[in-house]
Predict the 3D structure of the following.
Amino acid sequence: MNSDKPFVLDFDLLSGLCKSERVKPKYRYASDMRDQFLDKNAADMAIKAGNPLLYEFYGLDLPERDNVLQFGTTKIYPGKIGSEYYMTKGHFHTLLDTSEIYYCLRGHGIMMMETPEGDVDYREMLPGDAIYVPGRWAHRSINTGATPFVMFFVYRADAGHDYGTIEEKGFRRLVVEKNGKPVVTQNPKWL
Ligand code: M6P
Ligand code: ZN
């Protein structure tokens, strides 16, 4: 794709979908996320019972250069594995100092964030909320609502995704449902 000419893309406010063939969808199913959830039995049961799609995201086929901005949408479906809400895998940027912006279009969720040093922050996201995730902060989007949670994102195209420690241990905090409400708890793998 020629990134040096202006272009317009149309992202649907409800579905987050973009009809342009320039925007490539990626899908993550329960089987792709099995080890990210604390309750492995619940994850295995969900996989056996049809392996639901947990989230999908769309980005452009742009060159991964420091002067290019990557953008698109993420759509996380409502649901839980055990008592943990559906969520993205989450990542640091390979270029750790690079930031990202998310703008909530639809639904209700939490952006969970942490630094390599162990600082933790999390913010509720509702339609109209834009969050600035500074460099050094790993980020994971969690759908705590009953409808799809859709966000638009922008980041430096060469930022890269570093899943290393997160794939092994997850984030320091989990978001689980207790008495019908989302509650932030300590991840026992980090105790
Ligand atoms: C957003 C962006 C993407 C990211 C995606 C899924 O769409 O931040 O860069 O890949 O969310 O998140 P993850 O890669 O953590 O599964
Ligand atoms: Zn990111």
